[in-house]
Specification:
Helices cover 35% and strands 25% of the residues. By secondary structure, it is α/β, with parallel strands linked by helices. The protein has an eight-stranded mixed beta sheet, with helices on both faces. α5 (172-184) links the parallel β7 (158-164) and β8.
């Protein structure tokens, strides 16, 4: 049975509170850092974390917005996403602080860490790879592909991006641009594109956002999860 523990972090005057999901024996295990959607830490990511624990991994559901925003209304969360996304250099500092916090936990095998994210979190996961961080892998579920605006050097992490081809927020040209960017950075990369699938396909409540093209897709969710687990087995052994 998994155990969930709140993990606070003071970052540049803000109080963040991530959630560690692991086994009760507290043994160090390969760990997946999960960066949430625009809605921040929610039952969706905690559910994925519990599933990872059942498969022998730990999960660390990262809070980027701040403890006070957990469960906040949609418009407030969108405001926070826009605030963080408007300064990708500051966002990079935040992401690396959270990654280092997770790696420093006694239950985490610091040499076996993967960073994964959903929607905005997918963009954040890709940004972790773009920093050249020494993590085993990075995975993006229906993430945003726009480049960070700072110089990207050598990417060490293996990269997996899972994308709905009809995603209104990421056009085909953006997919090609990401492939070119990852190639130029020397990354070992994969992009899985799912036909007739839009944005947010892993989230059964995606339609509640009220944006055309944002919708849960059961088969794409299953396919992407299978691809993700195969990726974890490859990069984490």
């Amino acid at each position: 049975m998994s155990k969930e523990t709140n993990v606070p972090l003071e970052f540049e005057g803000e109080q963040l509170e991530s959630v560690f999901v692991g086994r009760r024996d507290r043994q160090a295990r390969p760990t997946v850092i999960l960066i949430p959607t625009v809605m921040g830490v929610s039952d969706l990511e905690l559910k994925f974390g519990r599933q990872l624990v059942e498969l022998g991994f730990n999960a660390f559901v990262a809070d980027l917005f701040g403890k006070k925003f957990r469960g906040a209304p949609r418009d407030v969360c969108f405001g926070e996403m826009n605030r963080l996304g408007s300064d990708r250099v500051a966002l990079r500092r935040r992401l690396l602080a959270v990654v280092e916090q997770a790696r420093g936990l006694g239950e985490v095998d610091e040499g076996k860490v993967v960073v994964a994210g959903y929607c905005f979190g997918g963009k954040c996961a890709l940004d972790v790879a773009r920093t050249g961080a020494d993590v085993a892998g990075v995975a993006s579920f229906h993430g945003l592909f726009d480049p960070p605006g700072w110089e990207v050097g050598k990417i060490k992490a293996k990269v997996l991006a899972m994308h709905g081809w009809n995603d209104p927020m990421v056009k085909p040209d953006d997919v090609v641009a990401l492939g070119n960017e990852l190639t130029a950075a020397g990354a070992d990369w994969q992009i899985h594109a799912y036909g007739h699938v839009g944005h947010g396909f892993t989230n059964p409540k995606a339609h509640e956002i009220g944006i055309d093209g944002v919708l849960y897709h059961e088969l794409a969710a299953e396919r992407s999860w299978t691809a993700f687990i195969n990726f974890l087995e490859e990069v984490l052994g």
